[in-house]
Amino acid sequence: MRRVTDKNQKTKTKCLRRVKIFPPPPSYQAGERFAERAPRTTLGRLVDVWFEEAGDGPMNPSQVTVRHTPLKKGKVDAGATTLDKIVTTGAQSAAVQNDPLCKQALANLQGKTATVHTSIAAKKQAAQTLDSASMTLKLDYGAARSALVTYEEGVRVLANGDASIIAGAGLLTRDMSPPEPQLAVVVEVIGKKGKLAAEGVVKWPEVAGATSYAVQVNFTPQTPSSAYTALGTATRRTRVVKAPTAGAQFLVQVAAVASDGTQSAWSDAILVTAR
Questions:
Q1: By CB distance 3.0 to 4.6 Å, which of 10, 61, 127, 256 could disulfide with 264?
Q2: 151-188 pLDDT tens trace
Q3: Where are the domains of the chain?
């Protein structure tokens, strides 16, 4: 059983009864409000039904009490809005304003609510300040890292491998990387006649660490000290050289080239005869 109040402030009692549904008797009139409990011997279907009975007047105020207003911890903004509504409504209540205890409690609630709004505004301002400070810190830290690199480079040059100077400067030390091995001189360069007239072919073996090879020729072999003509670099280890005339002879030198552009010494010159 429970009591409810309708929109006209009429008290109603709801009762849960188990009744048996059966075909209505011939005397049943449409619109009848209450159903009568059917005898258990009557054939039919048992169901649970809520029945309403009208009260005689408004609900007795002494039968209700204050229900606590839930304020969720993680929903501060929503809670502040709820408090504002309570304070505003209470300030308009004559009963509350005429009761010294309630009036004082409402004034205290109003003050605490105002403090909540102040704290919310301070939190938002602090969040904005934090974002700005975080960005400034990121920029400053990046500038400091760049300055550290400059300082380390200066100490590296000053120390020239002296660990005591580096440690005295407040920096860390590490073993220096070994220098890159020098490229070996190309050896066993061979030459032969090409397939076409005035062509000569030059070949040589691979050199460790080389990524390309430079070739230069001297078309006046009778004067070995004369200037050589550069034929550029290529990754292949075979080069076809076009001589000035068919059957001409020329001197050839080859050098290995590393990926950083470092070049080995020139190989010994060999004499090649073109077809």
A1: 256
A2: 999 999 999 989 999 999 999 998 877 777 789 999 99
A3: 2-61, 70-175, 190-273
